[in-house]
Amino acid sequence: MADRGSRPVVAGAVARTPSPAGRAPETRPERRTVIDADGRAKAYRPMPGPERTAAVIAGLAAYTAGDFFEAHELMEPAWMGTDDPAERDLVSGLIKVAAADVHAVRGNPRGVARNLEGARDRLRRVPDGDPVPHLRVDVAGLRDAIDRRLADLADDRPTNPIPISWSSR
Hints:
Structural class: alpha+beta
């Protein structure tokens, strides 16, 4: 177990819970975390690759259908289910794009901008290639669309959800 300030970072440790005398201590999996690119500990709940891919595809389908909140909810387990930094950044960026549109529906342009800025920051860290198994997302095109939408927001122009170009392989 490593120590980051006063908060321990645990990767798969087992905690022992004291039990009454005469009984073996109970064991339970310790909460797992990974350190993100900003140095913050984030939840890690391992999920097999095919399930992560299916979750992201379901989230992208919900986003395309205009159900932005559902898109966010569907993709979140995939984000928490991998410890690969590139995959986490891509999925987190997609979640932020969906969250931006949740704020747009609620009439909160500041929330739109903040989530799009967060999405852009995460997507900038995604290397070329396809970090989510069997899924291709046009990350460069998405980053460009985010920049255009942020410029429109800064100029108080109306904006629409960003179409996300993706395909499963």
